Amino acid sequence: MEFKPEIIYSQSFNPWYNLALEEYLLNGVSDNEVILYLWQNDNTVVVGRNQNAWKECRCKLLEEEGGKLARRLSGGGAVYHDLGNLNFTFLMKDSLYDLKHQLNVILNAVKMAGIEAEFSGRNDLVVQGKKFSGNAFYKAKGSSYHHGTILVNSDFSKLMRYLQVSSDKIRSKGVDSVRARVINLKEVNPDINIEKMKKLMEESFIKAYGDNIETSPEEINPEKLPELDKLYQKYSSWEWRYGRTPEFDIKLVNRFDWGGIELNLALKNGVITESTIYSDAMESDLIRKIASSLKGVPFRFGDINNRLTGLKEEEGKNIIDDLLTWLKNKIS
Ligand SMILES: Nc1ncnc2c1ncn2[C@@H]1O[C@H](COP(=O)(O)OC(=O)CCCC[C@@H]2CCSS2)[C@@H](O)[C@H]1O
Question: Where does the secretion signal sit in this chain (predicted)?
Fold first, then answer.
């Protein structure tokens, strides 16, 4: 079958827009088309479809430092993106999907930069035994995508900083990330940069899929495309990014002047469904009231703050203030 290869670049560094465009392209891919979509996100953690955002990422810190949390459709673990990282997505109908062929596009692109890399067998591409590309997959309604990262010169201090597992005790049904030793391609070949990597990907893609190619720097205005806009609303929503976390329990422990607290929460769709507090504080009625008032509240500081502030009329104001100060530093 004759392929219709196409290369699309996103002009945006916003992960919610870029993921929306990826899904939009998937929904619209035609029978003989193979799209290579190249995109970058600035200061972003992307968690897998079935991951616990609170566990996998120091989301509060990330957001305070201007970063964004995103959730993708594909499975797998959490990765960090900045402008030193290039993302690629191959999109096509299921019949044209060929993982080996797609992986060879990346392997040949880096080979042209003098870098010998290989597929690790567990969805990673590695050089010198260290990972520079994590890959993940998605399939729906007869169409598929395979996407991945390419670390060219990312900031690893930030990568480590944001991808730390939470120190709070979380019992979750979701998928855990598989920590790996990472490497930037620039460490292997100092001449390589993002622009060159894009050119190499383009060249390698054309070699693999033919030169009857169309390229378009995609600058679609989502407001003019209701379907894309709808996807953007989904990817940017708290309900998708945090709320889609699989059910989990979390235990938050702290000691205050007035006593110790062990806050046990059960969460579904990011909303507190059960809440129990164990405490040796004198004000046991108030503590019980606090626990029961948290039921039904999204696990989000603003909502918890509203709910607990509503209890403040009564005595024990300092207890509520202390709890809020503590939680403010924990929950985004
Ligand atoms: N950008 C990037 N590239 C490669 N490896 C990374 C990156 N960021 C973090 N890591 C390392 O991978 C593990 C997680 O590995 P794990 O195998 O758990 O997850 C993945 O690889 C998922 C890849 C998803 C690719 C998508 C493509 C477009 S949107 S995101 C993490 O703990 C770090 O050690």
Answer: none
- Confirm if 148 and 135 have CB atoms less than 8 A apart: yes
How much is the pLDDT for 220?
A: 60
> Is residue 191 exposed (0-12), middle (13-18) or buried (19+ Cβ within 10 Å)?
exposed
Going along the chain from its start, the domains and CATH numbers come out as 4-241 (3.30.930.10), 248-328 (3.30.390.50)
Tens of pLDDT, residues 289-330? 999 999 999 999 999 999 999 887 666 789 999 999 999 999
192 Cβ partners below 8 Å, 6+ apart? 113, 115, 152, 185, 186
Q: Which atom of ligand 1 lies closest to the CA of 154?
A: 1
**Torsion angle, alpha carbons of 145, 56, 238, 14, to 10:** -60
Q: Would you say 32 and 210 are in contact if contact means Cβ atoms under 8 Å apart?
A: no
Which residue spans within the chain are E strands per DSSP?
4-10, 33-39, 44-47, 68-71, 79-81, 85-93, 118-119, 124-127, 130-140, 143-151, 169-172, 214-218, 248-256, 259-268, 271-279
Instruction: Report d(CA 135, CA 83) in Å as an integer.
Output: 18
What count of Cα atoms within 13 Å lies in the side-chain half-sphere of residue 232? 15
Distances (CA, A) of 83 to 15, 42, 43, 153, 154: 12, 5, 8, 8, 7
ipTM value, please give it.
0.99
Rounded Cα–Cα distance for residues 209 and 203 (Å) = 10
Q: Could you tell me the distance, in angstroms and rounded to a whole number, from the CA of residue 269 to the centre of ligand 1?
A: 24
User: 0.90 cut: is pTM over it?
Assistant: yes
Q: Which residue among 40, 68, 79, 80 has the greatest number of ligand 1 atoms within 8 angstroms of its CB, and so is best to mutate?
A: 79
Q: Which residue, by CA, sits nearest to atom 26 of ligand 1?
A: 148
